[in-house]
Amino acid sequence: MGVGAVINAFFSTIVEIFLYCIALNQSKGKLVEGSMIGSVLGGVLLLPGTSMCGGAINRKTQRYNPASAGVSSTMLLYSMLAMMSPTILYEIYGQYEVECTACSPEIGGSDCRKCHFFQPSIVVDQLYLNYLRPFTVICAISLFLAYCIGLLFTLKTHAAMIWSTPVSAEKEKREFAIEVQSIKSSEQSSQHHHASRRPSLRPQQSSHHVSHSMVSHAQPSVSMQQQPEPAAGGHDAPNWSRTKSTTILLSATLLYATIAEILVDVVDDVLSAYPIHPKFLGLTIFALVPSTTEFVNAISFAMHGNVALSMEIGSAYALQVCLLQIPVVVLYSCYKNAGLTSVDSIVDGFGKFVTSFIQHGDEVSTANIDNMFTLIFPRWDFFAVMISVYMFTYIYAEGKSNYFKGSILILLYACILIGYYFAIEIDSTGLGMVKSFVMN
């Protein structure tokens, strides 16, 4: 089940990495930033929320292994801290600016001038080149190493502990109780057999009473044996061979990559036709469309009673965004902006990539922030992602699924998405300055 969840999320990850690299080549850094955050929010809020609500259609409550939930929660919390560490460093040591507005003719007086204190978006300065960018690369490498360690832990060394379900644990308890009861019944039967050979002054009804007692004691074990076990849920075993399945997966991935390239090419037409910010477009369309297969599979598995796989698909998708997509895109961004060309050899290219962190030259004036993925997010992104991951890990660690928890996750996703819309509007229109005049 774990391998299936990883494979299911891995092939969609390849498509999204290809999409992000094309977007960076076309100077759409805000689109990539919004897509990354939107993918994380969709993986920890919308996907598990819809899966829980879909699974509640046929079953009020479903259970899964809390041990697996604990591992996924730990990896999610680590990935969030490592991913947001450059943002924390920039919030502490980044520059702040004061923007003031002159007095308007409508407003008079000596104190009509208003100033606004804010922190601008990341710029390519000496702070970024000397400290933030190397720290970003270190965080990206640590995220990828955590991904490899997590795969080794969950799929090889501790797979039996992770993927055991509460149903199997209850089954083992019932089998042990049946075995103990059968031993007691055999001992009582042997004692009754020896007692029947000795003369006794008791009436013959006692033997009937003992046999009746044996039957009454044996009946619980029989009823326990005949008690139907809960179904495991899911679909039937596939009839495809490994070669056929691999071929279809690779073909579908190539087709999705082609569609992703077309999607990036038409972004400019969409932005010119509709008043949509590129980041909000990435939060919604670019984050949710490539993960459609994850949503369909997760809801389908939950409706068939296999909510454990549905939850694991959501957590695996969010983890692969943080532990695989982000490191690859960060390294690609640094490699692309290190002054490399297609004719450079591998050795020379790697040397330029390494020395670019030491010899900066005129990078401050020539670099374009829209061509880079800096792994430094605004404050609203930081708080929204951390709160969402905390809510998901809190609900996920309980080991139970119902429509109430799913509805809470969906409502939180809707609130955060609406908050993004207003936050982007405030940043783009400068309403923080207008608010000062309204209060007068």
From TrEMBL:
Record's Gene Ontology CC terms? endomembrane system; vacuolar membrane
Ranges annotated as biased composition (Basic residues): 191-200
**Sorted UniProt keywords:** Ion transport, Membrane, Phosphoprotein, Transmembrane, Transmembrane helix, Transport
Q: Name one Pfam family in it.
A: Na_Ca_ex
Top-level taxon of origin: Eukaryota
Query: What's one GO MF term for it?
Result: calcium:proton antiporter activity
Span-the-membrane segments of this chain are 6-24, 36-57, 69-89, 135-155, 248-268, 280-303, 315-335, 380-397, 403-423
Q: How does it sit in the membrane?
A: Multi-pass membrane protein
What residue stretches are annotated with the Sodium/calcium exchanger membrane region domain? 245-418
Record family assignment: Belongs to the Ca(2+):cation antiporter (CaCA) (TC 2.A.19) family.
Protein name stated in the entry: Unnamed protein product
Taxonomic source organism: Ambrosiozyma monospora
List the top taxonomic levels of the source: Eukaryota, Fungi, Dikarya, Ascomycota, Saccharomycotina
